[in-house]
Amino acid sequence: MPADRSAPLLDVRDLCIGFPARGGMVPIVDHVSFTMPEAGILGLVGESGSGKSVTAMAIMGLIDAPGVRVSGSVRFRGRELIGLPPRQMRRLRGRDIAMIFQDPMTAFTPVYTIGWQIDEQIRAHERVTRAQARARTVRILGEMGVPDPERVARRYPHQLSGGLRQRAMIAMALSCNPTLLIADEPTTALDVTVQAQILDLIRSLRGMHGSSVLLITHDMGVVAQTCDSTLVLYSGRVAETGPTARVFDRPGHPYTAALLDSIPPLYGPRPDRLPAISGTPPTPMDRPAGCAFGPRCAHVHAACTTTPPALVPLGPDHAAACVLPAEGTPLPPRILRASNDTCP
Amino acid sequence: MTAVLRRAGQTLLVLLGVSVLVFGVFFATPGADPTARIAGRNASPQIMEKIRHEYGFDRPLPVQYAIMMKKLFITRDLASYADRGELVVPEILQAAPVTACLVCGAAFIWVTVSIAMGTMAAAMKGTWVDRGLMMLGLVGISIPVFWLGEVANLVTQSRYHDTWLFSWVPGLGYVPFSQSPSGWFRGLVIPWIVLAVMFIGIYSRVLRTDLVALAGEDFMRTARAKGLSPVRILLWHGLRTSMVTFVSLFGMDFAQLVGGGALLTEVVFGLPGVGRLTYRALTTLDLPVIMATVMYSAVFVVLANAAVDVIYLFLDPRVRDAR
């Protein structure tokens, strides 16, 4: 199947992922749709259990738990990935779509050197000699800001610091020049200073390799710093999607607004207590019939409790799954913003 | 390299401790006269007197220990009184190669078969192949080795010995390799299998459990995300990592078998190994032989542990740095 260059890089339509539990299917991810343009950075935001990691795993075709049902469509350059035979999926994985994981401490096989593991990926996809693979490994490690890459390539994972390991992980993911990089909470397990460095690195990938990045995180600050567009997931459904600046300025969904409110402001008076969202997200098994955020929402009313609200367009590429805009009472633009998206 | 040397030093120290302990258990237990026990039943007073003098039982304990060690390792003239003055150390040295042949062959079989079984079961987790193999493993664990040995003897030595299937099986006993390699092999192949059966069961189950647990590890997910083939992931990432557990298990079992733990197999098949020597000494209460075999066995367990640790250094880079 030839690659369709006019199609978006990644087009996810109505992705549903159901896990078997208590005799039925529990929808962990429920009709999630989004597209990613070439060389863009999309932030996938949500709390633990909102289905963001599972979505990434489904795109990679890495879900193989027995009984799990994945339906909908994931098109990568126009090519359908759902139901692709494993052998073809494998050729794509690591070469066209690569993934980096949350915990660099455990993501490398402990008994092989870093270089060996990166060489392995290169040699799995391309016919190159051992020496050629190693040369590329060292070059990429260097590009990722690893000091003395030749020596680091000969080290074992446990001999490196967390930041170095994550750099090596990114180097491994990029070793075959993927067009799409999925980063699943790449900075969560790292120190704050290292976090910033890794985010800088991820931002620079677009220029260096022309890669698009799907950045999965629970940290709105990371999204503000890094992503062109934002997709907010709540309980397996899309709550809001749009360009990052716009979503941060004029959140259309009370959940997004509440998330943004819970970031400490960089300017202006310090609040005594940061506002928090009361309650916890519903488990996928007893999600309410209406809006999943309803039970925790300050604006909840009768219209919210019957059916899950559909995505309502709010502006260019901006939409929120909330009844408020349609009822003519949209959320006000955030006044206390100014900070997160304008500061470096 | 320093790690290996340090481990060797520790091993020597442990061996010293083991020898003191074994000596203490056999000869310095309060309330029992070691002289009478060495002499065996119905010994004459002259012999008792001779033994007391020879082993220095009329002198302080440290001297007794030194004499015993000298008799074991330097002059090697520790003699068995129950067995008409047979020298113990040469007897053990004669029995050791038999046991070594038996155990090495069995170990080779159980390692290859259990790796194959465990890996296959893990690869086909949840299918009937997996369940069948693990059931087979459980059966292997449950069968007592002496029973299996006797049944094997019954089948190959008498019932079906004259059919084409088992006519190649020689009578019970041991043929040295130097005498006839094919006879050596034919005589040992059935004991090898019989001894290996239980270990195949244990090892394949342990390996399967280990591999299945590893499949949930982050690095296995990374390996899949790299686009590697399932076989490569299982063998190069899964199995290679499981080898760390496997080797430690193997070291212990191998050592105790070489040290005489294959006693039942040796007795059933009439193989004159260390295990059978221990068995004979136990039935005649031949104290010097018992002590010497216990010492021999302890030495092997300690040495095997040291060997396992050295292999660890190669298998697991994390251990290499921790030392």
TrEMBL record, chain A:
Cellular location(s): Cell inner membrane
Domain ABC transporter stretches: 10-260
SUPFAM superfamilies reported in the protein's UniProt record: P-loop containing nucleoside triphosphate hydrolases
InterPro entries linked to this entry: AAA+_ATPase, ABC_Ni/Peptide_Import, ABC_transporter-like_ATP-bd, Oligopep_ABC_C, P-loop_NTPase
Database matches in Pfam families: ABC_tran, oligo_HPY
SMART domains associated with the record: AAA
One GO cellular component term noted in the UniProt record for this chain: plasma membrane
Main localization of the protein described in the UniProt heading: membrane
UniProt keyword list: ATP-binding, Cell membrane, Membrane, Nucleotide-binding, Transport
UniProt keyword Cell membrane, yes or no: yes
GO molecular function, one term: ATP binding
Membrane association type: Peripheral membrane protein
GO BP term, example: transmembrane transport
Assigned protein family: Belongs to the ABC transporter superfamily.
Protein name according to UniProt: ABC transporter ATP-binding protein
Species for this entry: Komagataeibacter oboediens
Name of the coding gene: oppD
UniProtKB/TrEMBL annotation, chain B:
Transmembrane segments: 12-32, 92-116, 128-149, 184-203, 289-315
Species classification: Bacteria, Pseudomonadati, Pseudomonadota, Alphaproteobacteria, Acetobacterales
GO CC, alphabetical: plasma membrane
Keywords: Cell membrane, Membrane, Transmembrane, Transmembrane helix, Transport
Phosphoprotein as UniProt keyword: no
Membrane topology: Multi-pass membrane protein
Similarity-based family: Belongs to the binding-protein-dependent transport system permease family.
Entries under PANTHER family matching the protein: DIPEPTIDE TRANSPORT SYSTEM PERMEASE PROTEIN DPPB-RELATED
Compartments reported by the entry: Cell membrane
Domain ABC transmembrane type-1 residue range list: 96-312
GO biological process: transmembrane transport
Name of the protein described by the UniProt record: ABC transporter permease
Entry-linked InterPro entries: BPD_transp_1_N, MetI-like, MetI-like_sf
SUPFAM superfamilies given in the database record: MetI-like
